[in-house]
Amino acid sequence: MGHWLDRNIIEPGKLPLLLALAAFVLTFLVTRAITRLIRAGKGPFGNVTSGELHIHHVVPGVVLTVVGGFGAVASGEEGAWPAIAAVVFGVGAGLVLDEFALVLHLDDVYWTEAGRKSVEAVVLTAALVGLLLAGFAPFGVNDLSQDELQNRAGAAASIGANFLFALIALSKGKARTAVFGVVIPVIALIGSVRLARPDSPWARRFYRRRPRARARSFLRAYRHDRRWSGPRRTVENWLGGRPDPTPRP
């Protein structure tokens, strides 16, 4: 274990990234545990307030993210400061993304169906950072040969093509595929050639006069959601807690 850590993490200079990821995931898990206890009325915890103002934990999260980010930039590469700044940044990012849905909707949707976006953002971020930690580089730059890296035109063309595939996948309503495709280009390529989701900008633009393609798009989306929505909701409930039931009109 020590040899693997030295060779794959410390020598390549990835220790701050590992510490930031660990702090990020741990902060999210601890925060969710505390908020679930507060929701259930158990334990010594309670909401932080100033008068009648409820101070959400995204506020200290933003402060810690700013401090950790600027601290990492100012600390250079020597000493323990990069590692400390990485931990501070990871804690702040965990607090911020735990309330990502609140920032997105500008409303306290923490325990609603819309609040699931926070859990999705955290899982997606942790997975992407894990891929970077494993050695993947954005836009497939790590797949280029030394000759291609020396040839700036070839490198720029490769990066541009990968970015284009990611944009096409995003326009087809496949946000997760597009994000992961930035790091693993073959995923973006697959997402760009497959059918678009029926509610995507691509479908509205190119399937408007193609009823067969539109029907296939609806059928594939239905089968995909039917297969994966249940397991995804189970994992999200386990990680972030079950949302409040939506009141009937």
Structure in words:
This is Integral membrane protein. The chain crosses the membrane at residues 15-34, 55-74, 80-106, 118-141, 153-170, 177-196. Keywords: Membrane, Transmembrane, Transmembrane helix. The chain has twelve helices and two strands, in the order ααββαααααααααα. α2 runs parallel beside α4 and α9 runs antiparallel to α10. The chain is flat. β1 (49-50) and β2 form a beta hairpin. A two-stranded antiparallel ribbon has the order 1-2. Helix content is 70%, strand content 2%. The longest helix is centred in the C-terminal third of the chain and has 30 residues, at 211-240. It has a domain at 1-135. The protein is mainly α.
**What is the ordering of alpha helices and beta strands?**
HHEEHHHHHHHHHH
Helicity range of the residues?
over 70%
- Helix/strand-derived class? mainly alpha
Q: Tell me the radius of gyration.
A: 21 Å
Q: Strand arrangement, largest sheet?
A: 1-2
Strand content is under 5%
Low-confidence stretches: none
Biggest sheet overview: 2 strands, antiparallel
Question: What sort of overall outline do the alpha carbons produce when their principal axes are compared?
Answer: flat
User: Which whole number gives the mean pLDDT?
Assistant: 86
The total count of helices amounts to: 12
Q: Total number of β-strand segments?
A: 2
Terminal CA distance: 57 Å
